[in-house]
Amino acid sequence: MGFLKEVDHIGIAVQSLDASLRLYTDGLGLALDGVREVPRYRIRIAMLRCGESYLELMEPLSPEAEVARFLERRGEGLHHICYRVEDIREALRACEAIGLTPITREPYLGAAGLPVVFLHPKSAHGVLVELVEKKAPDLPGRPA
Ligand code: ZN
Predict the structure, then answer these.
(1) What is the pLDDT of residues 71-99, one digit of tens each?
(2) Cα of 142 to ligand 1 centre, how many Å?
(3) How far apart are CA 63 and CA 9, in angstroms?
(4) Distance in Å, CA 58 to ligand 1 centroid
(5) pTM > 0.85
(6) What is the domain range of residue 63?
(7) Ligand 1 centre distance from Cα of residue 83 (Å)
(8) How far is it, in rounded angstroms, from Cα 131 to Cα 116?
(9) Per the structure, how many domains does the chain have?
């Protein structure tokens, strides 16, 4: 098996969490896991559980936020895919070895307090890729 263990979450840029959450919770029936601000990116995020993965709705809190510029250019929609890895430094080295370009030289602590790193979409066929070092969620019925 490769070093990408599972999809941890899919990031979706939205204009308004309040407006979009209704679709995902009341409409689609996903459980809201929490809403929090991420000052580093000047956004507010809502995590919604879907099986063993999450959707991460991202709402800009400032016109200077990267997500605000993304919304201006492309409108609401898919923003990034985040994969769980066991060892982020090892995964980063493996990604660089196949030509993926990290956006920061080093992993750093993301919104959930776990080490993350982003890889440039230009090096990955247009997809912004995030890696997070995280153990799989402890779910009932999941093989150990
Ligand atoms: Zn993310």
Answers:
(1) 999 999 999 999 999 999 999 999 999 99
(2) 24
(3) 24
(4) 9
(5) yes
(6) 6-133
(7) 9
(8) 5
(9) 1
